[in-house]
Fold:
Amino acid sequence: MSIHKIGIIICDRYRRCAGGKCFSSFQKRQGAFSRYLHQNAEIVGYTSCDGCPGGNIEYAAEEMIKNGASVIHFATGFLVGYPPCPSLEYFKDFLTNRYSIEVVYGTHPIPQKYYTLHQKLQTWADPKWDDILRDTLSDEPTRIAYN
Ligand code: SF4
Structure:
């Protein structure tokens, strides 16, 4: 069986994060990692975008691809930060055009506290967010577990 090799890029606002929620959800195949349920997968790279405007997106992806990555996940922090990363769609377009690599929005399920506040703020009111959040919305008990 082939192995999905995954690179994770995190928003630099969370650069001190040790990846607890990302790695836990990867092991449990939750959130955006549910696509690898019952499949072999490994994480071959984990780094930050290096801060706005995201200068490391280009170089980190290249290094991950050299390490065998076939898919890049933007960590859930891209989606739930206050505000969400303003460049996430550009970054996805850039990587898919530059490297012909699959890019996935999100890693672990959205924590409920972020979900609740973004609902109040109507951050995700534009219909484009339906697609962006699809893999990480999960159900409420799961979101609560990631608070
Ligand atoms: S908002 Fe976007 S560009 Fe800025 S640090 Fe976060 S991921 Fe990087």
About this structure: The chain has a mean pLDDT of 97. Helices lie at 20-28, 56-66, 77-80, 88-99, 112-121, 128-133, 140-145. Residues 11-13, 49, 51-54, 78, 85, 87 surround iron/sulfur cluster (CB under 6 Å). The chain has one domain: 3-145.
